[in-house]
Amino acid sequence: MPPAEPLASAAATWDRLAPRYRAQERFEARAIEAAVRLAEPTPAKRLVDLATGTGLVLRHLASQRGQRPQQAIGVDRSPAMLARVGALPEGWSTILGDARSVPIAGGWADVVVCAYLLHLLDAGERRDVLAEARRLLRGDASARLVVVTVWADRRRPGGRLLHAGLELAARARPERWAGLRPLDPSAELRAAGFSLTRRVVLRRRCYPSLVIAATPSLRVRDRAMAPPAPPAPSPPPVHVIGTSALGAGRPTRAAAPCCLREAPRVTPDDHGSAPRVQYAGASRAAIVTPPRHDTAGCAP
């Protein structure tokens, strides 16, 4: 697993590692199997796999025969990794893109999987990725996010030793072992508007891993779906009685103080359409909504 580094330079690193990445997938396979179970795929669902890499999550999903989703999209920044995904069932695809700004319409996915990515990022990048996962998910109770990170349970004697060893290795040789720095993202998931539903800790026959399933928080969903507040009414004109050029005692209109002047309004454009909404933090010049496919069209 490569060292932690900014997403801006990560694509080149993964391109370099892609030819030999499959050799270490056996250390991820058990946690990926657990993630697929927690995702609870069904033919009626649509899934997005962030940082899909060589497609290990997609391959496990494809093996679920009667339960695999009708549509699945793998997203990764590395062209070389995506080139090694291989053949996918009909209706499935991969996209070259950044996990912080995915060119898929908001609310498209029933399930988002984010495996072995968050522990490679700094806190700000993790926050952006979780916000993007939240945007991609449908706004109902059936939506689900599943994340996998390297982790060791410090409440157990062996876990404390393992956690300390991983931290020591990451600090001593970050160029080689920083990617094994342990992370429990539970608090960050809650801060991003998710409610945790399941936790699975894996200690043997794989990287020491934590698998978490979460759903969008009902409180956050309600706030996101609430209608916008109506604009404040315009202030009335201010009249004063004073001395005008036409004679004493006549009413004259005075300009309202700046604090009472009417605020500028947001109006439709010249064609009558709603104002354009600009996403904060990332440009989405090409938001696409992948078409639905009938489940009967999927490859066996």
Could you describe the 3D structure shown?
- With 300 residues, the chain is α/β, with parallel strands linked by helices.
- It is built from 9 helices and 9 strands.
- It has helices at residues 7-21, 29-39, 56-62, 79-82, 123-136, 157-172, 174-177, 186-191, 218-225, and strands at residues 46-50, 71-76, 93-96, 111-115, 144-150, 194-202, 209-216, 239-241, 251-253.
- The protein has a 7-stranded mixed β-sheet, sandwiched between helices. Strands 8-9 form a two-stranded antiparallel ribbon.
- Strand 6 and strand 7 (209-216) form a beta hairpin.
- Helix 2 crosses helix 3.
- It is globular and about 45 Å long.
- The two termini are 33 Å apart.
- Residues 1-8, 220-226 and 238-300 have low confidence and may be disordered.
Average pLDDT value?
74
Task: Give the number of helices.
Answer: 9
Number of strands: 9
> What Rg do the Cα atoms give?
26 Å
Distance between the termini: 33 Å
State the order of secondary-structure elements, H for helix, E for strand.
HHEHEHEEHEHHHEEHEE
- In helices, the fraction of residues equals 25-40%
In the predicted model, the low-confidence regions spanning at least 5 consecutive residues are 1-8, 220-226, 238-300
Please indicate the percent range of residues in DSSP E strands (runs of 2 or more).
Answer: 15-25%
Strand order of the largest sheet: 3-2-1-4-5-7-6
Sheet with the most strands, sense and barrel status: 7 strands, mixed
| General form | globular
Structural class assignment: alpha/beta
